[in-house]
Amino acid sequence: MISQRIAEEVLQEAKRKGATEADLALVQNELVTVQVRFGEVETIRSAKEVGLGLRLFFGKRSATSSTSDLSRESLDRLVEDTVVLAKATAHDEFSGLPSPEELAKRFPELDLYDPEGETLTVKERITQAKEAEAAALAYDSRITNSEGADFSSNLYRIIYGSSQGFVGEYRGTTFSLAVTPIALSNGAMQRDYWYSFTRHLKDLESPEAIGRQAAERTVRRLGGKKIKTQEVPVVFDPETAASLMRTLCSAASGPSLYRGASFLIDRLGDRIAAEIVSVYDDGTMPGHLGSKPFDGEGLPTRRTAVMENGVLRSYLLDTYSARKLKLVPTGSAVRGIGDVPTVGATNFYLQAGPHDPADIIQSVDRGLYVTEMIGSGVNLVTGDYSRGAVGFWIEKGELAYPVEEITVAGNFKEMMLGIEMVGNDLTFRNGVVAPTLKIRRMTVAGH
Amino acid sequence: MTTQLVRPERFFLEKFGLTERHLERGLGAALGTQIDYADLYFEYRISEALSLEEGMIKRASKNISQGAGVRALAGEKTGYAFSDEISVENLELAGSRAKGIAERAGAGSPPPVRVGGPPPHDLYPVRIPPIEIPVEKKIDLLQRIDAIARKVDPRIVQVMGSFATEYKIVLVATSAGVMIGDIQPLSRLNITCIAQEGDNRQMGTCGGGGRVEFDFFFEDGRFDRYAREAARLAIVNLSAAHAPAGTMDVVLGPGWPGVLLHEAIGHGLEGDFNRKKTSAFTDRIGQRVASELVTVVDDGTIPFRRGSLNMDDEGTPTGRTILIERGILRGYMQDRLNARLMGMKPTGNGRRESYAFQPMPRMTNTFMLPGDSMPEEIIASVKRGLYAVTFGGGQVDITSGKFVFSASEAYLIEDGKITRPVKGATLIGHGPEVLTRVTMVGNDLKLDEGIGTCGKDGQMVPVGVGLPTIKVEGLTVGGTQSLTKGEIYLQ
Fold it and tell me: Taking the domains of chain B in order of start, what are their residue ranges?
């Protein structure tokens, strides 16, 4: 079990060993995953895990360490090892904890925790997973196989403390239900999936709805064709549009910028996207998946306008990258247990626009509707973009037939400027989300 | 801690005050009348990472994790429970929870656990694990690399170097009465350079490592080569033109481009997907899936390699599995569960990221055996096409068989000659079919430098790949420059 007392003891030990500053995060997860396949339980995995991540400073030198062993003896040794490491690193004038006045003074109630997670039985989880899979299997006779359905949950608790006297703590829950059916037609198989991911059990989509949606998405992929290489308008559905937002978020992150590894360097105040594009990162939205009361360095989370009407307004910054870039931190520090704080999204979203997704598709005479992308062909330094895609060919405003084994390519900078329509279908089903988007022109490679 | 001469079984028994009797109690708790098999997996891992940017060591971290997982198997069902506190109470608790999960059944008799011998191989006899090398020496290495890379060209404006090493001790005790352990060192050096000319910024990355001693990075000037290569790549990309788009002949260079095999066929030949019949390769053993020039193996027994293991994470000795022999599909990679359910033999491919996960079939080092062609003759045979030599990662959809892998260094081939660099692009193909279009295989098999990490179901494990130079006819290249009237490049 983690506790604020452990945090205080480790910070004291760090001070005794001569550290000028220190901070740490303690994390506790209670994970349960149930997998069913063809109505039978295939796997149940359950565990409690804890971890402590420590950062020490000796003046402007610092090092981090982590352990899953919270015994007193192990923690004392961890502090000692970290001291040795910290003394070996370079003096870095930008390093150090945030200034005390920046730290969160009060912790807003963000509705992150659902006590129903404590009483939910394994049997109930199995039932939901079975129902979701059954709904998928019953949807269409071409659904012949299944990767199964998963119900996962996590009850977590996070404590952050620093030598400046800050101690904060919050709990949260997440629940997810996902189904992956497989369809067969003319000897060719296709799989797709659908899921629901929420903080509150009652907000999960019904197992039947998830199963049907997964099956519908799978069956519609059958008979996919390759198309010829050409430049056409491309419509991204909300799931794939969200992956464009993940790329934007990485490029707007302080560490990518000060390292010179982003195509957004020195672009604050510039028009970098079409005027209809506004993007926010908001960690304060009650009950949302990316929300939290304070970031990985104890700063309050906030709503940051990243882009407004196509103009780049802010980067996402932790304390170190903000100092490097001579800017103000945005409460975006994320702390993996084993690593130094870095920058991450909270609820990062492209604001919904006026268009019904059906109208967006209807606006395309000949083009591509993308529903899945694979591969990691994005170069953050240049913005060059090339990824495998699955989707539908649009002919005269209608989805004509499924396509596969193609790529979509362009440059991310031009793609952002080329956004012509923004859908009204934004839903916060994940931490990083977007509505349906239409991009004027991209290269589609096929035959 | 002194890491030399540690025997895994003694390490865990002494460190956590356990005895063979305690292990039997843990297994006994997991066993029931309907349980086919149970095992305990212990892991202790120390890792250290140092990174340099802007000419200074900015990050240093040390991480320690330890824990045990208990698994019970009944038919197709798996119960898995783990704890990061290793004690006899937790073993029994996890054991009974795993059993409760897999099957509600009566008490089984605890099996006798024997102190096992060493694993069957000794593939990485490391005298001094790199984790024990003083941190100053690692810092010195990174600083030398920074200086070398910057000296390559004044346009190199940023050098990021990292050295990461881990030392992992594992022990497996099974209900078949076997207890076997291993010590698994692993190190990786990575260098990324950014070059700038006007507004044009480009990146180049190189690195390597394995289950090696620290001296490995100094042998034959290896670190020097990595540094120069990362800088060279960044500089080459400054002059890269737009990549072509469309279907064309592609020549893959030797080594890391073997990521093609990993994505196109490797994952599809993992036992779990074939047992469930969700792989595009399901029921295709004995059928032709590649040209007869193609033989592909997965070999976990190559000394000192990143993807090698003395035993897998279920205690099965690793081996060499022939996946494709002269174009014919021969075998799958198996863990115990899937091998048993398919009536096949485990192949030593049951791997897991850590004690927090149950094992599943994973690759080790996957590569194509060399052929007869000279690399120059392969390039000379291409009228118009792409020569791709360095890659980022890839991904595959197991069920449809569609896979991608992304080139980060590529050149046009025009009239049999390499002409000029083009920007990276994603290549896409169909796994069960792409290797049938391999029409030339070089005599220059190379394994990668030791940089691969494979993700599956959220579990990351180190792997290796390898390839000789090969020619693949008609692969789709996802650049931005459409082919028009036989011309493949446009500014």
Answer: 8-238, 244-482
Mean pLDDT by 10 residues, chain A (447 residues): 94 96 96 94 88 95 94 92 91 95 94 97 95 98 96 97 95 98 95 98 98 98 95 98 98 96 97 98 98 97 98 98 97 88 96 98 98 93 96 98 97 98 98 98 95
Do the bridges between strand A21-37 and strand A366-374 make them parallel or antiparallel, or are there none, so unpaired? unpaired
Q: pLDDT tens digits for B313-328? A: 999 999 999 999 999 9
Q: What is the pTM of this model?
A: 0.94
Tell me how far apart the alpha carbons of residues B197 and A374 are, in angstroms, rounded to a whole number: 31
Residue A273 in contact with residue A244, Cβ under 8 Å? Answer: no
Q: In which residue ranges of chain B is pLDDT below 70?
A: 1-6, 103-118, 482-491
Domain ends where: A219, A248, A275? A219
Total structural domains within chain A: 2
Fold for B8-238, please state it: PmbA/TldD fold (3.30.2290)
Pick from A96, A76, A92: which is nearest to A17 by CA? A76
Q: What is the C-alpha radius of gyration for chain A, rounded to an integer number of angstroms?
A: 24
For residue A68, the chain B residue with the least C-alpha distance is B65
Whether A77 and A191 share a structural domain? yes
Residues A142 and A270 in one domain: no
**Contacts A407 to B, Cβ<8 Å:** 245, 404, 425-426, 428, 476-478
Q: Which of B62, B247, B406 sits opposite A65 (nearest CB)?
A: B62
pLDDT in tens, A346-364: 999 999 999 999 999 999 9
pLDDT of residue B487: 39
Is A447 close to B423, i.e. CB distance below 8 A? no
CB-closest option in B77, B97, B424 to A42: B77
Separation in Å, CA of A50 to nearest CA in chain B:
7
User: Is A443 in CB contact (< 8 Å) with chain B?
Assistant: yes
Expressed as residue numbers, the domain containing A182 is 4-219
CA distance A348 to B294: 46
- Least CA distance to B398: which residue of chain A? A191
Q: Which of A381, A406, A409 sits opposite B479 (nearest CB)?
A: A409
Please tell me the predicted confidence (pLDDT) of residue B109.
56
Three-state DSSP state, A104: coil
Closest CA to A374 of A263, A251, A243: A243
Instruction: Kindly report, residue by residue over A51-103, the tens digit of the pLDDT.
Output: 999 999 999 999 999 999 999 999 999 999 999 999 889 999 999 999 999 99
Q: Which of B48, B160, B358 sits opposite A259 (nearest CB)?
A: B160
Does A265 lie in the same domain as A364?
yes
Could you tell me if A37 lies within 8 Å of chain B, comparing CB atoms? yes
Residues A125 and A235 reside in one and the same domain? no
Chain B closest-CA separation from residue A354 CA (Å): 30
CA distance A108 to chain B (A): 32
In angstroms, the separation between the Cα of residue B77 and the nearest Cα of chain A is 4
What is the nearest CA distance from A106 to chain B, expressed in angstroms?
Answer: 31
Contact B389, B101 (CB under 8 A): no
Residue B408 CB partners (closer than 8 Å, separation 6+): A379, B204, B205, B233, B237, B390, B391, B392, B424
pLDDT in tens, B202-230: 999 999 999 999 999 999 999 999 999 99
Chain B residues within 8 A of A48 when measuring between CB atoms = 83
CATH, residue A64: 3.30.2290.10
